[in-house]
C-alpha cells in the first residue's frame, strides 16, 4: 500500500482536493500495474491494486469535502482561530466494485460534517446497488445475488439488504405506471404472463402487459396489471384497465391486438369506439393444435393457411367452410374455436399486406414476454404480488439498455405506419398536427 501511495502522490498525478481535475499519466498507471505484478499483488479482489486505489481516491475526496466544509486545507494556519476544525478520523468499511475497502473518514469538532462521496451510515457505493439491480433484472434471486457478490467481490451482503436495494425501484415503478402517454397509438398489443404467487397457497396469477407502437414506430410499454387467480378476465376488469390508459392521455388507438381475452372487445368499444380489435392468428393456430392429435398438426396447419392468408373476408369464409367440412367430424372443438373468434379474426383481412405482417400476431409482445418469463422462472414463485410486479418491472426496464434494437424496430414499422394512415383515413397524420 505504501508503494502505491507514493506512486499516486507522485507530482505527475496529484491526489487531493483537485484530483478530479488532474490528468492521469499513463506511465504512472503502467508503473503501478507493473509493481503490483512484481510484488504478487492482484489487480482486483480484496487488498488488490484497484481496492488500494479506490481507498486513496475516496479518502482524498473526503479530505477535499472536509476542506470545503471548514473553508481551509489541512495544516492551514486559518484553522487556529478557535472555530470548528478537524477532530481525527474514524474507520469504516464500504463495499465497492473493487471489493471491501476500509477507509478513514475525517471528523470535525462540532460534528456538522456531512460527507457526500461516502455518506454517513453508507456501507455500499452506488455502483454496487446498480450491480444488484442489474442482476435482479436478469432474474437472479436474492440468494444468487448474495452468492455472486461474495464470490466476485468478497463481500457478505444479506438477502434482506438486497431486497432493500431492489425495493428502491418501487417508487420509480409507480411513477412509470402513472406517467402520461401519447394521444394516439397505431397499435396496442395486450398479452398475459402467468406468474406463481403465494397468497395463502401458490397459485398462477395473470400479469398483463400492454405494448404500444407510437406514431414514430417506437416501442412504448404502457404498463403492467395484475389479475386475480381464476378472474376470467371479464369486461369490468378490462374497462378499468383501459380507462386508466385513457386517463393517462390516450385519446385514440387504431387497432388493439390480443389473444381472445374475454370481455376485452366490449370494453374497447366503450373506451375507444373506433378501435379495431384483432385476435392474434398465431394464438388461434396454437389453440387449434391443443385440440388435435400431434399426427394431424401439419395437415391442420396446411388447411388453415388458406383461411388466414385469404385476400378477402369472403374468400376466408369459403376456405373455412372447406376446412370445417374436412375436420369437424374429428375435431369439432377447432371449428367452434374459429367460429367464436371469427369477428375478431377477420378485420386484418381488409388491410394492406404491410399491416397484415405486423398485426396478425402478437409476436412483438411475445418476444418481450419470453425475456420476462426467464426472469420469472428463475424465481419459481413470489411471496407477494408486489414482489412479482417488481421483478417484471426491472426485467422490462433492462430490455435493450443500449438502445441498439430501436433502429430495427422502427425500420420494421415504417411501411406499416404509412399503410395505417391511409387505411384509417389520416387519423395518424391528424395526431401529428
UniProtKB/TrEMBL annotation:
Chain spans, region Disordered: 73-110
UniProt keyword annotations, A-Z: DNA recombination, DNA-binding, Transposable element, Transposition
Compositionally skewed regions (Basic and acidic residues) per UniProt: 73-84
Domain of life, source organism: Bacteria
Pfam family, one: Transposase_mut
Function field: Required for the transposition of the insertion element.
Name of the protein described by the UniProt record: Mutator family transposase
Organism: Actinocorallia longicatena
Amino acid at each position: 500500500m505504501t508503494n502505491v501511495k507514493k506512486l499516486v502522490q507522485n507530482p505527475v498525478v496529484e491526489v487531493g482536493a483537485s484530483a478530479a481535475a488532474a490528468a492521469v499519466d499513463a506511465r504512472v498507471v503502467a508503473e503501478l500495474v507493473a509493481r503490483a505484478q512484481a510484488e504478487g499483488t492482484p489487480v482486483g479482489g480484496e487488498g488488490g491494486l484497484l481496492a488500494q486505489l479506490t481507498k486513496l481516491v475516496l479518502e482524498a475526496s473526503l479530505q477535499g469535502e472536509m476542506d470545503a466544509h471548514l473553508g481551509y486545507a489541512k495544516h492551514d494556519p486559518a484553522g487556529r482561530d478557535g472555530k470548528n476544525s478537524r477532530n481525527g478520523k474514524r474507520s469504516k468499511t464500504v463495499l465497492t466494485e473493487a471489493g471491501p475497502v476500509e477507509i478513514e473518514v475525517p471528523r470535525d469538532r462540532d460534528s456538522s460534517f456531512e460527507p457526500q462521496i461516502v455518506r454517513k451510515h453508507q456501507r455500499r457505493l452506488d455502483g454496487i446497488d446498480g450491480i444488484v439491480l442489474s442482476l435482479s433484472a436478469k432474474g437472479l434471486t436474492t440468494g444468487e445475488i448474495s452468492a455472486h457478490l461474495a464470490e466476485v467481490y468478497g463481500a457478505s451482503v444479506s438477502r434482506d439488504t438486497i431486497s432493500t436495494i431492489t425495493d428502491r425501484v418501487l417508487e420509480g415503478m409507480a411513477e412509470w405506471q402513472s406517467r402520461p402517454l401519447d394521444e394516439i397509438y397505431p397499435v396496442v398489443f395486450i398479452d398475459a404472463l402467468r406468474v406463481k404467487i403465494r397468497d395463502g397457497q401458490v397459485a398462477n396469477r395473470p400479469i398483463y402487459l400492454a405494448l404500444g407502437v407510437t406514431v414514430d414506430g417506437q416501442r412504448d410499454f404502457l404498463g403492467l396489471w395484475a389479475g386475480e387467480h381464476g378472474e376470467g378476465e371479464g369486461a369490468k376488469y378490462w374497462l378499468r384497465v383501459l380507462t386508466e390508459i385513457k386517463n393517462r392521455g390516450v385519446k385514440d388507438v387504431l387497432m388493439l391486438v390480443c389473444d381472445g381475452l374475454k370481455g376485452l372487445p366490449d370494453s374497447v368499444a366503450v373506451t375507444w369506439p373506433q378501435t379495431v380489435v384483432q385476435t392474434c392468428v398465431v394464438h388461434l393456430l396454437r389453440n387449434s393444435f391443443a385440440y388435435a392429435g400431434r399426427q394431424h398438426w401439419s395437415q391442420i396447419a396446411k388447411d388453415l393457411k388458406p383461411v388466414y392468408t385469404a385476400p378477402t373476408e369472403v374468400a376466408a369464409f369459403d376456405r373455412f367452410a372447406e376446412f370445417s367440412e374436412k375436420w369437424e367430424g374429428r375435431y369439432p372443438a377447432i371449428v367452434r374455436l374459429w367460429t367464436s373468434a371469427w369477428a375478431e379474426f377477420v378485420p386484418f383481412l381488409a388491410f394492406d399486406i404491410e399491416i397484415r405482417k405486423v398485426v396478425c400476431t402478437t409476436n412483438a409482445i411475445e418476444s418481450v414476454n419470453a425475456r420476462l418469463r426467464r426472469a420469472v422462472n428463475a424465481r419459481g414463485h413470489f411471496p407477494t404480488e408486489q414482489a412479482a410486479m417488481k421483478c417484471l418491472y426491472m426485467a422490462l426496464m433492462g430490455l435493450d439498455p443500449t438502445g441498439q434494437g430501436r433502429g430495427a424496430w422502427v425500420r420494421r414499422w415504417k411501411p406499416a405506419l404509412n399503410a395505417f394512415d391511409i387505411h384509417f383515413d389520416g387519423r395518424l397524420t391528424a395526431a401529428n398536427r
